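Repro:
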Amino acid sequence: MKAFVIALGLLPLMAVAGEKIDETINVPVNKRIFIDNQRGDVRVEGWDKAELKISGELDDKAQGYRLEIEGDRIEFIVKMPRTTSSGWSRNDGSNLTIFMPKTSELELSGVNVNVIASNLSMGSDIDVVNGDITLSAISGDISVETVNGDVDAVGLSGDIRYETVNGEINDKDSKGTLRFTAVNGDIKSKTQAQDVRLENVNGDIDFAFDAIKRLRINTVNGEAEVHINRLLDNADVRFESVSGDAEFYFPADVSAEFEIEAHANGKIINQLSADKVNKAKYGPASELEFSINGGNADIEMDTISGRIELKKQK
């Protein structure tokens, strides 16, 4: 093992800026894979081999790379100068294809980098500043963060966390628990997750839930369309909005207790039952409370300067 580590330590001396790279090493059991590539495009795919294979072309400005075992992980780092040109286009940077054991955890970071990752079963932690992230067939603890970029994900399962500042999030066919945090971007999800939390500012949301046990939504300056096919036993739903309209679609046989409040000229529209909205005696506020079909679930909604519509699934 000592000889192996020493050999890996020599790899930076072998790399020349902009040259091709084609390296394959064995991955010991329980080793995480850490990738640091500041610019370019990276595709990561899990496979059944206990090997890490890296191929492609390094950034023209790269000063080599480092590939070595460090503690509980294997690190691959494209070495860049401390200062690089502020301009960047999609043709700049490294272009890398990486195969890794699908039973290893992935940790990847970059600045101006687009990431595609798939077929991993031990989770991933992906953090970039400027770039799009595309994921598929990943399970485990999953954390995805980009400042300026979109996130597209299909078939994720586990504890899933998305975060973006200027970009859209599109989540499809996910399972487990979901957490969304977004500013200046729309969020769309069609999911089987039963525990979901969302915080969004300046963006629309479009959700379709197969079944929900726990749902929390906080949104500011955005429209919301939420479809719930089924509320699980004793489900708990909370919704708060400021300056945004929301449409909630429930199954025709929904069993729940509803408590809805609207403030500052907000509006409530109820198409689930014959219960009427009560307007406040003083001030521009209104409320609606009712129980339907036994009142199994608990649903509370609150809006300031927005509209809440309760509808039946079509």
